[in-house]
């Protein structure tokens, strides 16, 4: 056979029969598959995050880690760009932008106007079944001078310890629901308190009305729904959050361990109803609060998330926000200075 005939036969062979071309085609397909495998989990996460519902019990546990996922999602556009998969790049950019839009505003002050009325300083702490030394907590109250103190996991012995440590000299009014285990809560105040009926779905969430000079009655709830740590606790968690009062009429403030982050649909529902998160308002919304001791889930350490909040009626201004470490609890205490509309 002549050389030119051999050339014609080789050229006529299909690409799949050419041993040099076939592996190259397979490599291109695998690169495309890899690019989409990187993009897809982030796309699913972003889609679920936008749904205004709990979706599933497992999603309630996972959605708390959205800030970490938003940061990790930046890998997807890089993989798509390096592999030159333009469709994957376009989708990954939309996904990363969506997750960033959910998370980044929490690090930016909202710049809202502050009313000219009286200040209300609020401190909230989960005592981890009353384990926080009463004298240390009272020292923090003495230093920060809150007008209202909301406590979760308040046990009878912790309540008695706080009394002996002198809390009543700083915050003489109280509405207590001291219970054994993690179910108790309380509200203490510098001003007169009218105790309300506690919200009780597994855990007790103490309700009180504080008479703030110059502003009138302010509703306070020491928030602590059940933790959605397993499927049996999920209904209790959902009911405890759903029962929290919505804004309207008198000013309302919710302070405590919500066992939920700003990415949970039930917290977003509260914000849509007219609350604002004090940390979010001051640009501190990514400040983490739990767990500040190692906690494991299915053998893995739980990343630190933000489940302790002070939610205030949108008619209220937020002047400052901060967190404070206390011994013998894995929660950081949260503190906010609010400015109320003048009566």
Mean pLDDT: 92
Taking all Cα atoms into account, the compactness measure Rg is 27 Å
Number of strands: 16
Question: If strands are numbered along the chain, what order do they take across the biggest sheet?
Answer: 3-4-2-1-16-15
Low-confidence stretches: 3-13
Distinct helical segment count: 12
CATH class of the largest domain: Alpha Beta
Structural class: alpha+beta
Give the percentage of residues in beta strands: 15-25%
CATH architecture descriptor text of the largest domain: 4-Layer Sandwich
Total separate domains? 2
Helix amount, in percent? 25-40%
Biggest sheet features: 6 strands, mixed
CATH fold naming of the largest domain: Deoxyribonuclease I, Chain A
Helix/strand order, N-terminal first: HHHHHHEHEHHEEEEEEEHEHEHEEEEE
Any idea what the CATH superfamily of the largest domain is called? Endonuclease/exonuclease/phosphatase
How would you describe what is shown here?
This protein has 343 residues and is of the alpha+beta class. The chain has two domains: 3-106, no CATH class; 113-339, Endonuclease/exonuclease/phosphatase (Deoxyribonuclease I, Chain A). 37% of the residues lie in helices and 24% in strands. The chain has twelve helices and 16 strands. It has helices at residues 3-12, 21-50, 57-62, 66-72, 75-83, 86-103, 134-144, 156-164, 167-170, 234-242, 265-273, 278-281; strands at 119-126, 148-152, 173-177, 185-189, 193-195, 199-201, 203-205, 207-212, 216-223, 251-257, 275-277, 296-297, 300-301, 308-313, 317-324, 333-339. It has a six-stranded mixed beta sheet. The chain has a six-stranded mixed beta sheet with strand order 5-8-9-10-14-11. The protein has a two-stranded antiparallel ribbon with strand order 6-7. A hairpin with a 1-residue loop joins strand 6 and strand 7 (203-205). Helix 2 packs antiparallel against helix 5 and helix 4 runs antiparallel to helix 6 (86-103). The protein is elongated and about 80 Å long. The termini are far apart. Residues 3-13 have low confidence and may be disordered. One of its GO terms (molecular function) is endonuclease activity. It comes from Streptosporangium brasiliense.
């Amino acid at each position: 056979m002549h050389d030119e005939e051999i050339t014609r036969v080789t050229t006529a062979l299909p690409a799949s029969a050419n041993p040099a071309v076939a592996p190259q085609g397979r490599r291109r397909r695998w690169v495309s598959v890899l690019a989409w495998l990187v993009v897809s989990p982030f796309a699913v996460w972003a889609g679920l995050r936008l749904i205004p519902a709990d979706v599933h019990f497992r999603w309630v546990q996972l959605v708390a880690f959205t800030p970490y996922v938003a940061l990790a999602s930046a890998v997807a556009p890089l993989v798509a760009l390096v592999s030159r998969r333009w469709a994957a790049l376009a989708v990954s950019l939309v996904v990363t932008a969506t997750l960033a839009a959910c998370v980044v505003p929490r690090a930016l002050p909202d710049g809202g106007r502050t009313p000219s009325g009286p200040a209300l300083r609020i401190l909230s702490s989960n005592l981890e079944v009353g384990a926080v030394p009463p004298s240390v907590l009272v020292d923090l109250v003495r230093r920060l001078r809150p007008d209202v103190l909301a406590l979760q996991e308040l046990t009878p012995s912790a309540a008695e310890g706080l009394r002996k440590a002198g809390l009543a000299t700083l915050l003489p009014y109280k509405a207590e629901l001291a219970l054994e285990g993690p179910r108790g809560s309380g509200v203490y105040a510098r001003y007169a308190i009218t105790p309300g009926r506690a919200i009780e779905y597994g855990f007790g969430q103490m309700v009180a009305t504080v008479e703030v000079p110059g502003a009138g009655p302010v509703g306070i709830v020491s928030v602590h729904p059940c933790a959605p740590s397993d499927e049996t606790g999920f209904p209790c968690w959902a009911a405890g959050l759903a029962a929290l009062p919505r804004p309207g009429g008198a000013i309302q403030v919710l302070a405590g361990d919500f066992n939920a982050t700003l990415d949970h649909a039930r917290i977003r529902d509260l914000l849509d109803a007219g609350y604002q998160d004090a940390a979010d308002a001051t640009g501190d919304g990514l400040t983490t609060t739990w767990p500040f001791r190692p906690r494991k889930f299915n053998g893995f350490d739980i990343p630190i998330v933000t489940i302790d909040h002070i939610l205030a009626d949108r008619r209220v201004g937020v002047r400052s926000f901060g967190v404070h470490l206390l011994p013998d609890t894995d929660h950081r205490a949260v503190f906010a200075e609010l400015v109320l509309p003048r009566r």
